[in-house]
């Protein structure tokens, strides 16, 4: 049986973090990007992380952040993994004392294999929809057929996922993990309990049939 992991991103409060954990999420995402409607500050993030039960991975999302900004967050918030969602070069992602994911926004003209190989030090590659001027969290789905075979890193699939399509996504793409934010929200920055539970239920249904 292939187990597909799930990450609930854009968590902004303790209640939603506990909801995700109780529903069975493997990870939660905390957004340290002021332009996002789902942004949290270090104080909020520290409270969220402190409330989580064991075995829930905490991921901090950054967009073109300076090294000192990242270190300031890490001095306050015990994050497990960093996720870089901007135009960061590999050297900007390294050296923070944490493993990292690199997000790539998919366009038809991109050589995803070459881009993934460029980030050889990443723990995983996250693929998301390309929307000009935006760095994720768009709710847009991209053409999954653009994903090449043989990616050199575990694949985290994002972009427009929701309870109604995540099983189809997993069946077609066979990712290591799926990442959702807007697809399980009641409003920007707040999660819908039933949508979170149904999303993870759908992921687990695929686990038993792949």
Query: What characteristic shape results from the CA principal axes?
Result: globular
What is the rounded distance between the termini?
7 Å
Helical coverage, percent range = 25-40%
Reported for the largest beta sheet, the result is: 8 strands, parallel, barrel
Enzyme class: isomerase
Protein name: N-(5'-phosphoribosyl)anthranilate isomerase
Pfam family, one: PRAI
GO molecular function, one term: phosphoribosylanthranilate isomerase activity
Question: What does this 3D model show about the protein?
Answer:
It catalyses: N-(5-phospho-beta-D-ribosyl)anthranilate = 1-(2-carboxyphenylamino)-1-deoxy-D-ribulose 5-phosphate. Belongs to the TrpF family. Pfam families: PRAI (PF00697). Its EC number is 5.3.1.24. GO terms for molecular function: phosphoribosylanthranilate isomerase activity. 30% of the residues lie in helices and 21% in strands. Strand 2, helix 2 and strand 3 (57-62) form a beta-alpha-beta unit. 40% of the residues are buried. It has a single domain, classed as TIM Barrel, CATH 3.20.20.70. It contains 7 helices and 10 strands. The chain is globular and about 40 Å long. The chain has helices spanning 14-23, 42-51, 67-76, 90-93, 112-118, 166-173, 193-207; strands at residues 5-8, 27-31, 57-62, 81-84, 100-106, 124-129, 155-157, 177-180, 185-187, 190-191. It is of the alpha/beta class and 210 residues long. The mean pLDDT is 93. The termini are close together. It has an 8-stranded parallel barrel with strand order 1-2-3-4-5-6-7-8, surrounded by 4 helices. It has a two-stranded antiparallel ribbon with strand order 9-10.
């Amino acid at each position: 049986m292939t187990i597909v992991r799930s990450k609930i991103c854009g968590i902004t409060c303790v209640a939603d973090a506990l909801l995700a954990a109780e529903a069975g999420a493997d990870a939660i995402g905390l957004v340290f990007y002021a332009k996002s409607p789902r942004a949290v500050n270090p104080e909020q993030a520290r409270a969220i992380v402190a409330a989580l039960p064991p075995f829930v991975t905490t991921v901090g999302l950054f967009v073109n952040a300076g090294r000192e900004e990242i270190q300031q967050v890490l001095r306050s918030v015990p994050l497990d993994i960093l996720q870089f969602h901007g135009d960061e070069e590999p050297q900007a992602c390294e050296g923070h004392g944490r493993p990292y994911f690199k997000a790539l926004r998919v366009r038809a003209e991109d050589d995803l294999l070459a881009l993934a190989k460029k980030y050889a030090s990443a723990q995983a590659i996250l693929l998301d929809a390309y929307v000009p001027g935006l760095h994720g969290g768009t709710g847009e789905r991209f053409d999954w057929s653009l994903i090449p075979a043989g990616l050199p890193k575990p694949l985290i699939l994002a972009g427009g996922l929701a309870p109604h399509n995540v099983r189809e996504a997993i069946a077609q793409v066979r990712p290591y993990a799926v990442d959702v934010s807007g697809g399980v929200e009641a409003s920007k920055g707040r999660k819908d309990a039933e949508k979170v539970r149904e999303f993870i239920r759908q992921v687990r249904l695929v686990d038993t049939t792949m």
